[in-house]
Amino acid sequence: MAPKFGELFLKILLILCIIKSSQGREFSRKNYPYLKMASSFSLSPPRGYDYIIVGGGTAGCPLAATLSQKYSVLLLERGGSPYGNVNVSYLQNFHISLADTSPQSPSQAFISTDGVINARARVLGGGTCINAGFYTRASSSFVKEAGWNIELVNESYPWIERQIVHWPKLAPWQVALKDGLLEAGVSPFNGYTYDHLYGTKVGGTIFNKNGFRHTAADLLASGSPKNLNVLLHATVLRILFNVRGSKPRAVGVLFKDENGKQHRAILNGRSQSEVILSSGALGSPQLLLLSGIGPKQDLDKLGIPVILNNWHVGKGMSDNPMNSIFIPTKKPVEQSLIQSVGITKMGSFIEASSGFGQSSDSIHCHHGIMSAEIGQLSTIPPKLRTIEAARKYSKTKNDLPREAFQGGFILEKIDGPLSRGHLNLVDTNVDNNPNVTFNYFNHPYDLQRCVYGIRTIERIVHTKQFAKLTEDDSYSIEMLLNMSVKANVNLIPKHTNDTASLEQFCRDTVITIWHYHGGCHIGQVVDKEYNVLGVDRLRVVDGSTYDSSPGTNPQATVMMMGRYMGVKILRKRLGKRAGV
Asked: Where FAD is bound, by residue (predicted)?
């Protein structure tokens, strides 16, 4: 994907949205005394830290909170605070952050070389601030393959759940999906459960009954205020190493504050102090490369001094491909995000979303990045997607009746894709996204599972549950597929009228559900304790170490991993004195 074309498409999205809000640079220090702006670092007396954690996201927040119970922790987050940001806090504004391409947005858009629009978090709390909120644990096989201690896993999940997880009140669209899944044969019904079980179930959510989002950032309240230091808008440029000795040793990080001023944060002199990367599947491999750990040939091209030659950094990237079918309805349906899910033995997950909502004090954008109306731009030939065409389309779009886009989506996602890609640096600017290739459906079994998922959706659509909601129960699957091709948002050339091949539909309409992972795999970049191979005092704790995405939605397990590793580190250092 040419960078200029990617920038143009993001500008097109921006034209459709009038940005009226800013990300939470303002927050109450009374309520969150551990949160400070990065520029305040120079005002504090110089000191060393037991742990410097890079990335205050889904794993980084529970990890920092846990370690701070016994040791000094500096948590560096490149984004701002989620508190006071209505686009983060409320379910009805879910799509806004993803459509917001402003520099203050809690999400940073990127486009993979495959042509799929994606996003990475840029806010304290990470992906838990911009996702659909669904909470479900990993399968027992995932835990076993990860080599985790089952007893500690079963202690760590509830620690998360007690603080931020709720049971949802099912919206009508979600009830229809649940009943439709069962009628279509995705059984049994496993009730309300966090567990990953074959069949149909209702999972947890981080939205409360009023639609207010709780995030991983809330877990920081469990930390020790005297030991926990969180800096916002603190962008780490590179890891600092002492290269004297048998192996390079991490000693700190270099970061810039919100004004662009650079600072050095240093570990203290204790033998077990560490730098821990929790910057996510893009951020952690990107920062390793920027710090000189990666393929020597690639680092040399960018003039990055080589600390450790490791070909595997940034390799084995995967994203769970998702395809959606748009279902028109007789009347507007209540907004809902993921609540019910079907887990098939074939390795396809079926989920759904519906409706539209937006609070009056949010930014104004008619629908989200997956919406029908923004998606119509994908039917414009690439060479004709100019700013002028976008303005013309935007003007015409405003004349369309809102009912033209009423309805919902049924989503199909592949579990554990076998297709693999890679990540590499474009330049040495940490603010720029790296190039990422996921190679969606490169492996034939992934394509086979997508087709299975679409056929399952076809059965669901024709159940009596959806007949009550849909505009016309005589819609053929071909008609629905054609509507979905037109409604889809990616930069892959479309075959709008060619729906005879479900394989072609899967390739044409692939999008993301933001569950990408890999780049720092165990045995290649890190060991089983997540220590970076070949260097001392450096660890990676996040989804970049995963070979597959856990459960139907990964946030529960990524948060659990942060708590799990924090407890494990404390117990190793202190034994019974850890008290956790």
From this structure: 123, 236, 514-515, 543, 554-555
The verdict on whether residue 408 carries a ligand-binding annotation is no
167 is in an annotated binding site: no
DSSP, residue by residue, 507-568 = HHT-EE-S--B-SS-BTTTB-TT-BBTTSBSEEE-SGGG-SS--SSSSHHHHHHHHHHHHHH
Q: Which residue intervals of the chain bear CATH 3.30.410.40?
A: 169-202+319-422+435-514
Cα torsion at 444, 515, 489, 504 (round to 10°)?
10
Give me the residue label for tokens 């369309």. 400
Tokens matching residue 408: 């919902």
Cα maximum dimension of the chain: 73
Examine the residue annotation and report whether 366 is marked as an active-site residue of this protein.
no
With 80 as the cut, is the pLDDT of residue 370 above it? no
Instruction: Average the pLDDT over 140-165 and give the result.
Output: 97
Tell me the pTM.
0.89
514 is in an annotated binding site: yes
* Residue 430 is labelled as binding a ligand: no
Closest CA to 418 of 317, 524, 550: 317
> What whole-number distance in Å separates Cα of residue 109 and Cα of residue 100?
9
Region of 503 on the Ramachandran plot (φ > 0 left; ψ -120 to 50 alpha; else beta): alpha
504 is in an annotated binding site: no
**pLDDT tens figures, 37-76:** 999 999 888 899 999 999 999 999 999 999 999 999 999 9
Find tokens 């009943």 and name the residue: 179
Both ends of the chain: CA-CA distance in Å?
48
Q: How many residues does the chain have?
A: 580
Are the C-beta atoms of 121 and 79 separated by less than 8 Å? yes
- Contact (CB, 8 A) for 36 and 229: yes
d(CA 44, CA 47): 8
At 180, is the pLDDT very low, low, confident or very high (cuts 50, 70, 90)?
very high
| C-alpha span between 82 and 106 (Å, rounded) | 8
CB 203 within 8 A of CB 134: yes
Tell me if 269 is assigned to a ligand binding site. no
Tell whether 166 is in a known binding site.
no
Strand runs (DSSP E) across 261-303, as ranges? 262-267, 274-277, 293-294
Per annotation, catalytic residue among 233, 366, 422, 515: 515
The pLDDT tens digits of the residues spanning 493-536 come to 766 555 568 998 899 889 999 999 999 999 999 999 999 999 99
- Across the chain, mean pLDDT equals 86
CATH for the 32-82+123-166+211-314+520-574 domain, from 3.40.1190.20, 3.50.50.60, 3.30.70.100, 1.10.8.100: 3.50.50.60
Question: Hey, which residues does 227 pair with through a beta bridge?
Answer: none
For the chain, how big is the Rg over CA atoms in Å? 23
Which residues, in sequence order, are CB contacts of 145 under 8 Å at separation 6+? 547
Identify the H or E element spanning 446. helix 444-461
| Better-predicted residue by pLDDT, 417 or 478 | 417
- SS3 label, residue 479: helix
Q: What is the distance between the alpha carbons of residues 389 and 397, in angstroms, rounded to a whole number? A: 12
